[in-house]
Amino acid sequence: MNITVAAVALVAGIYVWWLAVRRLTTKPWEAQGTYDGRDTAQMAGPAAARIGLWVFLAVATSFFALFITAYLMRMNPEAVKGVDLRDWRPVADPAILWVTTALLVAGSCGMQLASWALRRGDFQRARAGMLAGGLFAIAFLAGQWLAWRQLQAAGYYAAGNPANAFFYVLTGLHGLHLLGGLFVWGRAASRMYQGSTAGDSTRLSVELCTVYWHYLLLVWLVLFGLLLIT
Amino acid sequence: MSYVAIADQHAHMHDPQTFLTRYVWSQDHKVIAIQYMVTAMAIGLVAIGLSMMMRLQLGFPDTFHFINPANYHQFVTMHGMIMVVYLLTALFLGGFGNYLIPLMCGARDMVFPYLNMVSYWVYLLAVLVLVASFFVPGGSTGAGWTLYPPQAILTGTPGAGWGIILMLVSLAFFIVGFTMGGLNYVVTVLQARTRGMTLMRMPLSVWGIFMATILALLAFPALLVSAIMMALDNQLGTSFFMPAIMSLGEQTGHKGGSPLLFQHLFWFFGHPEVYIVALPAFGIVSDLISVHARRHIFGYRMMVWAIVAIGVLSFVVWAHHMYVSGMNPYFGFFFATTTLIIAIPTALKVYNWVLTLWRGDVHLTVPMLFAIGFVFTFINGGLTGLFLGNVTVDVPLSDTYFVIAHFHMVMGVSPVLVVCGAIYHWYPKMTGRMTSEVLGKLHFWLTFVGTYAIFLPMHYLGILGLPRRYYEMGDTYFLPDSVQSMNAAISVAALFVAASQLIFLFNLAWSLKHGKPADGNPWRATTLEWQTPETPPRHGNWGPELPVVYRWAYEFGAPGHKEDFVPQNEAPDGRVPATHGQASHG
Question: What's the ipTM?
Answer without folding.
Answer: 0.91
